[in-house]
Amino acid sequence: MSEQKRIPQHVAIIMDGNGRWAQQHGLERYAGHIQGVESVRRTIKAAARHGVSYLTLYAFSTENWNRPAEEVNALMELFCKCVINETENLKTEGVRVKIIGDKNRLPGNVQEHLTRIEEQTAQGERLTLLLALNYSSRDELTHAVQQLARKVAAGTLNPETITEQSVEQSLYTAGYPDPDLIIRTSGEQRLSNFLLWQAAYAEFYFTPVLWPDFSDEEFARALDEYAARERRFGRVTNRNEERS
Ligand code: IPE
Ligand code: IPE
Ligand code: MG
After folding, report:
1. One of 64, 102, 178, 193 is an active-site residue; which one?
2. Ligand 2 pocket at CB < 6 A
3. pLDDT digits over 81-95, tens only?
4. Catalytic residues (predicted)?
5. pTM: predicted TM-score of the whole model, two decimal places
6. Position 85 in a domain
7. Would you say residue 110 lies in a domain?
């Protein structure tokens, strides 16, 4: 019997607490976002090292547009800078980047950078990095409903034949597995409009650590806790599965 630790295939992270980190250090909120990029870099490497196949990072929600324009603009600039600085490293590490969210509502230059990183990393086979940008679940589900309704209106889809799979295929995450583990930093214990459909059977890990302080050790702790959880998916414990 293998004693190997059960590793989640898909980890999703709500990277929260950049602003509070900056405040704690007497800095502007923007400095927290810059420091947060270091954690992103570290965590991508750690995920690949642990054998995680999919990593989703919540970077900007549709509600984050409601922040002061100064912060929103700074974040958009930071996304562009990251693409420019990180593409080569990601390619070397075998990371394939995909954006989930409504790209069309992002500034033109950000869209261009994102399309470029998706194209240039398309061959990555070690880890798929799903970047949730201008993402929210309700927005995603609204788009999915519109897409299905258009097909019904065009006469190419019979409403009676719509299944959970049809809905899934209309989401930004179409073709990717559901997250097994969702981590949120900064002590908040909520989803903030993240992967509401996909999280149906996810395990949750909440840590008070602020995102810029999220370390390899903290990530390993989350994986350890995940490995110790019993996932039942509505069934009763299966002794054979428990032993495998
Ligand atoms: C998360 O950190 C990053 C984004 C939402 C872009 P926050 O900016 O939300 O940090 P806090 O929650 O204010 O500390
Ligand atoms: C969630 O964090 C969004 C991201 C991490 C990108 P927020 O800081 O926006 O969430 P709330 O407002 O605390 O729920
Ligand atoms: Mg926050």
Report:
1. 64
2. 14-16, 58-61, 64, 188, 190, 192
3. 999 999 999 999 999
4. 16, 64 (proton acceptor)
5. 0.96
6. yes
7. yes
